[in-house]
Please model this.
Amino acid sequence: MGLKQNLHNFREKNKDKKWLPAFSAIHTFLFLPNETTHNGTHIKAADDLKRTMNTVIMAMVPCLIFGMFNAGYQHHLAFGEIQQATGGFFSAEFWTLDNFSVGFWKVIPLVVVSYVVGLAIEILFAIKNSHEVEEGYLVTGMLVPLIVPIDTPLWMLAVAVAFGVVIGKEVFGGTGMNILNPALTIRAFLFFAYPTWMSGDKVWVHGAVEQDQLIAAGENVDAISGETILGSLAQNKGAGYEIMDMFYGLIPGSVGETSTLLILLGGLFLIFAKIGSWRIMLSSVIGALVMGLIFNGVVAQDWITESSKFYGLMSTDFWQHLLIGGFAFGTVFMATDPVTASQTAKGKWIYGFLVGFISIMIRVFNPAYPEGVMLAILLMNVFAPTIDHYVVQGNVKKRMKRVKAKVA
Amino acid sequence: MGKDSKLILDPLADNNPITIQVLGICSALAITAELEASIVMSISVLFVLGIGNVVISLMRNIIPSKIRIIVQLIVVATLVIIVDLVLKAFAYELSKTLSVFVGLIITNCIIMGRFEAFALGNGPWRSFLDGIGNALGYGVILIIVGFFRELLGSGTLLGFPVLGDPIEKTGLYAIGYENNGFMLLSPMALIVVGIIIWIQRSRNKALIED
Model:
């Protein structure tokens, strides 16, 4: 009798207890449930919800680890404690234990708060509605710490997670029924509720806010400015970073979204595991490139002057838009969410294209908030069912015509 | 009397104009960022709906039904203009906060709805009670929403800083609390109203529509 059997017996014994969903959530997370169905036809497949969710988490782990190193690196760099890593991504100066430990102790609390609050609410609702706890939150809980600034106060994160899980998901009926991506709902809540903590040049580097408060209190220390590339472009100040640094991710930004390389690897992994939709990823990239090209064209035609507040972002090379901000992360991990994206193949192309297109449009035209990926994906989440409806109706019409032609 | 008291009590809970009939939402979203504005708006609607229902009820037998909407509009418009002028005279700052929404009481669906549905078919006393009841039901929701939005959004109630001073960092702000800017935006009012609807229907399952 191993642990598995013991747990199973325990479950049998407490079959009608109210808190059982909480127990079985942990149980099914550790082991495969040993219930079998006895009648009807079955398709045996290993890719259940748990497998799907775990695959996505695996794809995100490199981003998380890199995020920890980068958080420490940016912190030390901003405080002048280390020199810029000359070798970039591959140099030992970047992958130091010192960098890692600073980032680790900042990122892990974010992860823990996100999971504890989110799962507590999931379990609460599962008990109240007496259904099993769904695995949906596993991915959301991992996404959330990756898309917030490193210095986000934990209580804000907790409030936002509670809001996002309840309003973004549970009111619609839980995992699989939600209209909006819960992780993005959480981030949108944070952004609109506490804008000073989610944008500007102080929040992206650990310690910059504290330094600011010290200065406000009259102490003689240097101000730290850790502006993101998008932030400085929006103010027409130029990117200020090498292309390679943008690609490898040695730039300030939300915890896990900076390294385009690792996101790309995660994306390929998702595509090969057949979890993420390559249609959405590809069409979103195309959409972003098209919008970027349009803006480049506007600049090339001299339709706007250099003093225009849109000039900095409009004149950015169209392909560079893919490297900066949260575009890559949003496209690979958020836009492809199977619940909130379009379901039909043709719909996915339209949906992805518009995500990319609108992302860059919001990015350029909204200098107050120079990252449009979040809003673009949320907007398209709302329209995804409409797109699907018209794709399906179009198909119905086509086939009706065929039937009529045959009859005639 | 039992029947009459129902006229007042019903709209407060099980037949609330906002949470059950979902009428008058626009003003509930627009002016509830501050508690004071919510209260004044509720009183204005109370006045317009109470008097208006009585006036329509008194005239109900002489209004030709073809032009009844026009007559109703004139009655509402007259009352709203009175409210607007009173506010401008005695509470100028507040009337600026409420801006066009006082004028828009004319288009508040609750008012025309009560005229049509109740005052045209009932005596003045019952119409008066019905008007008061519905206005109170509207006001209760407005005040609840306004309470939470001002408390969480600005940290004040009726303008008094109940949670401490955010700039001097006293009270709750000393331990890192911050105001929730989202609460001041209209979408959050919709979500708060939604939560009220949710709580109300989960307590009384009979209210759930299919």
Q: What stands out?
A: Chain B touches chain A at residues 176-178, 180-183, 185, 191, 194, 198 (CB under 8 Å). The CA atoms of residues 26 and 162 of chain B lie 28 Å apart. Chain B has one domain: 2-207.
